[in-house]
Amino acid sequence: MKVFLALMCLALVTVGGCKSGKELPKVDGIKWKLVELNGKEVVLSNPESEIFMFFDSADKKVNGRAACNRFFGNYEMEGEKLTFSSMGATRMACPADSEWEDEFFEMLEVVDAYAVEEGRFTFLSKEEPVAVLQAVEQDMHTPKQ
Hints:
Blueprint: H1 2-16, E1 31-37, E2 40-41, E3 51-56, E4 61-66, E5 69-78, E6 81-89, H2 98-110, E7 113-117, E8 120-125, E9 128-136
Antiparallel strand pairs: 1-2, 1-3, 1-9, 3-4, 4-5, 5-6, 7-8, 8-9
Protein name: META domain-containing protein
Domain DUF306: 28-128
Organism: Candidatus Odoribacter faecigallinarum
């Protein structure tokens, strides 16, 4: 009986150890500001505009602002894979930074992986970086998005 119990314990430890040893990085509760897009530094014409994202890992939701328009959708993060789906956005007219916004939304469609290191969240497509976002300290008086 002791041998049977020992074998069962060993089997449970082995099965438990089969899960991915890599924990997903914490990305939710952080404001991620876009600083590079397709190899170009992001410089918007309106200094009060910015492109940023918030992740909600409990509901697998993402939302933010793409220079002018607000956006929202779903994301899936598993291992080193990352994909966005069911994305939607408001449609306000913002001619000044529309090229950045259009390029940002196009980029989200091709993301297939990511890397997080030292406060930088890099989106990848076919192993190549397509966007770099920087963790931003939030002002305590600014409402969370």
